[in-house]
Amino acid sequence: HTNDHHGHFWQNDHGEYGLAAQKTLVDNIRQQVVAKGGSLLLLSGGDINTGVPESDLQDAEPDFRGMNLVGYDAMAIGNHEFDNPLSVLRQQEKWATFPLLSANIYQKSTQQRLFKPYALFDKQGIKIAVIGLTTDDTAKIGNPEYFTDIEFHVPAVEAKQVVEKLRQDEKPDIII
């Protein structure tokens, strides 16, 4: 699991960050896990946006393309994904080869979710459900001009509803 990437797709002057280093680390961990007969999920807690100009000026395209190469399985949508208009986030979804998840982001006018609430994975016969949630503080700390038709429901309430639906319909072995 990673979190708060904030545009650091390149290593900085202090040898910190960088998706190339992350890929090396993840590949090493993946090899160790597979060698012991296991498997893994690589998840992001979001906040890919807003960090360094190289990323910001490209709407985080290098970050999402790099995350594809690292091999992410899913990402929860973070509050900083709303530092830009929804159209940018929709473009980022197209760049990503993994789902961007949030069970608690709704379109006000339709009361429909704007994103997939969860993704399902089968790892060695174990059915795993991963739910995405976004802090409802996003509406307070983000740019209000981008929330004209978006609302953030309470994450705990949405999580409970999604868990109940998953248990009833999908019957996963594990829910994250």
What does it look like?
- The chain is of the alpha/beta class and 176 residues long.
- The protein has 6 helices and 9 strands, in the order αβααβαβββββαβαβ.
- It has helices at 19-35, 53-56, 61-70, 86-95, 138-141, 155-170, and strands at 43-44, 74-76, 100-101, 105-107, 112-113, 118-123, 126-131, 150-152, 174-175.
- Strands 1-2-3 form a 3-stranded parallel sheet, with no helix packed on it.
- Helix 1 packs parallel to helix 3 (61-70).
- The longest helix has 17 residues, at 19-35.
- It is flat.
Short overview:
This protein has 176 residues and is α/β, with parallel strands linked by helices. 35% of the residues lie in helices and 16% in strands. It has helices spanning 19-35, 53-56, 61-70, 86-95, 138-141, 155-170; strands spanning 43-44, 74-76, 100-101, 105-107, 112-113, 118-123, 126-131, 150-152, 174-175.
Percent range of helical residues: 25-40%
User: Structural class per helix/strand content?
Assistant: alpha/beta
Our count of helices gives: 6
Q: Regions with pLDDT < 50 over 5+ consecutive residues?
A: none
Largest sheet: spatial strand order: 1-2-3
Mean pLDDT: 96
Rg from alpha-carbon coordinates: 17 Å
Strand content: 15-25%
Secondary-structure element string: HEHHEHEEEEEHEHE
The count of β-strands is: 9
Name the shape in a single word: flat
Largest sheet: 3 strands, parallel
Instruction: Please give the alpha-carbon distance between the first and last residues.
Output: 12 Å
